[in-house]
Write a structure and sequence with these properties.
Layout: H1 8-25, E1 29-32, H2 35-42, E2 54-58, E3 66-70, H3 77-80, E4 88-91, H4 103-113, E5 120-123, H5 132-141, E6 146-149, H6 153-158, H7 163-186, H8 193-206, E7 221-224, E8 244-254, E9 257-267, H9 272-291, H10 298-312, E10 321-324, E11 333-338, E12 352-360, E13 365-374, E14 379-381, E15 390-392
Parallel strand pairs: 1-5, 3-4, 5-6, 9-15
Antiparallel strand pairs: 1-2, 2-3, 7-8, 8-9, 10-11, 10-12, 12-13, 13-14
Helix pairs in contact: 4-5, 7-8, 9-10
């Protein structure tokens, strides 16, 4: 029987920190549409985010959050969430995917009945699961409310992980190593990319003795041959070839907490340019890891990496890392801290990052990455898989 993944005290701590930010921003009610943020505060989990749903968080008092979603999905709440049954509210099926009405019409009317019209309401404004029409219908249904931008409010709370969250990420890191091993074992000349992906998925989900894996925020990425010059290609039914370089980026998730890993494989004799570039990238990775410690700005980590590349005459325009943790498709990043020039966010203990060093060159490419925990002593790599270019003869 599914249960909330963490103790009630864990959720209470999260709510206190979110409410402190709400109070500082003068927000009376926070409406969350990101399923990761909904899960973070309530435990609710289900493949129901393809229709409108919200978690409503009151700022003051001891009032529990409300889950507001499709009536048929109410049944999932007692299996995964700590919310009392009276705080799980479903809108009628007659509101699902209709041109003449919208679920937010019903939700707005419900919130009005609870006295929230005329209050200051914060909404997420840049999430995949909250459409312009949804916000428009909420505004129309709550005409006296003041709507304010509360995008990433919960995400910034999530950026500092609890011991329970870090434990999930450690399990995910163990899983992702097994998935990468499955990828390396599967890739041979003549094998189709899709068949290698199938073996990766099996390793991601089957998990290990004692715990299983979840669906990941991103699908596995295989960058093989000329496609290695592009960072986010989808797999095909093309067959791997001898004397071909393949970069693999994938993740694993435990209770939706992610660890991500990228490595590079060459079948046959590797070209010298690949080996030379990989050596520089690993030197840069070590410099970035050495710079990652509490009190350091995120931009300074990228600068440590860039100094290595400058010395060797290489360039990488994109950021080299981002905050990672709890996530649902289509992303596992938290959309907060980025390791790039100009990011002045100061690193804290229990921040977690995917530091990814992809070099996409003309007609070829390679990748190396780690999932990293910031501790009082510095950076700890949660992922543990041999680095360097892996060669299969």
């Amino acid at each position: 029987m599914p249960t909330p993944p963490f103790e009630k005290t864990e959720y209470e701590s999260r709510l206190r920190r979110v409410r402190a930010r709400m109070e500082a921003a003068g927000i009376d009610l926070l409406l969350l549409a990101d399923p990761a943020n909904m899960n973070y505060l309530t435990g609710y989990d289900g493949w129901s985010f393809y229709v409108p749903q919200l978690v409503a968080v009151p700022c003051q008092g001891n009032e529990d959050p409300l889950w507001l979603g499709r009536a048929m999905d109410r049944a999932q709440a007692p299996l995964t969430s700590w919310l009392p049954d009276a705080r799980v509210i479903g809108y009628p099926e007659s509101y699902v995917q209709r041109s003449d009405r919208h679920p937010m019409d019903w939700i707005a009317d419900h919130l009005k009945g609870r006295g929230w019209d005329g209050r200051r309401i914060g909404t997420e404004t840049d999430v995949y699961y909250f459409s312009p029409k949804a916000l428009e219908r909420l505004r129309a249904g709550l005409p006296n409310a003041e709507f304010v931008d509360a995008d990433l409010l919960v995400n910034w709370v999530r950026a500092v992980k609890s011991p329970a969250e870090i434990a999930c990420m450690r399990e995910a890191a163990s899983l992702v190593g097994g998935a990468m091993r499955a990828a390396f074992d599967a890739i041979e000349p003549g094998v189709r990319q899709c068949d290698a992906i199938a073996r990766i998925y099996a390793a991601q989900i089957a998990g290990e003795a004692g715990f299983a894996g979840d669906i990941t925020g991103l699908c596995p990425l295989i960058m093989s041959g000329r496609a290695a010059a592009a960072p986010h290609p989808m797999w095909t039914d093309d067959r791997f070839e001898r004397d071909q370089t393949t970069a693999i980026e994938l993740g694993a998730a435990r209770r939706h907490y992610h660890a991500s890993l990228a490595r590079t494989l060459h079948v046959g004799r590797p070209p010298q340019r690949l080996m030379d570039t990989a050596k520089i990238v690993e030197e840069g990775l070590e410099a970035a890891l050495a710079a990652m410690r509490p009190g350091v700005e995120a931009g300074a980590v990228e600068a440590a990496w860039r100094r290595v590349l400058d010395r060797h005459g290489l360039k990488k325009e994109s950021r080299i890392g981002y905050s990672i943790g709890l996530g649902y498709p289509p992303d596992w990043g938290e959309h907060t801290i980025s390791l790039r020039p100009g990011d002045a966010t100061v690193l804290e203990p229990c921040n977690t990052f995917h530091i990814i060093l992809g070099m996409w060159m003309e007609g070829w490419g390679m990748e190396t990455s780690e999932t990293v925990l910031i501790t009082e002593q510095g950076a700890e790599c949660l992922t543990r898989f041999p680095r360097g270019v892996h060669v299969k003869d």
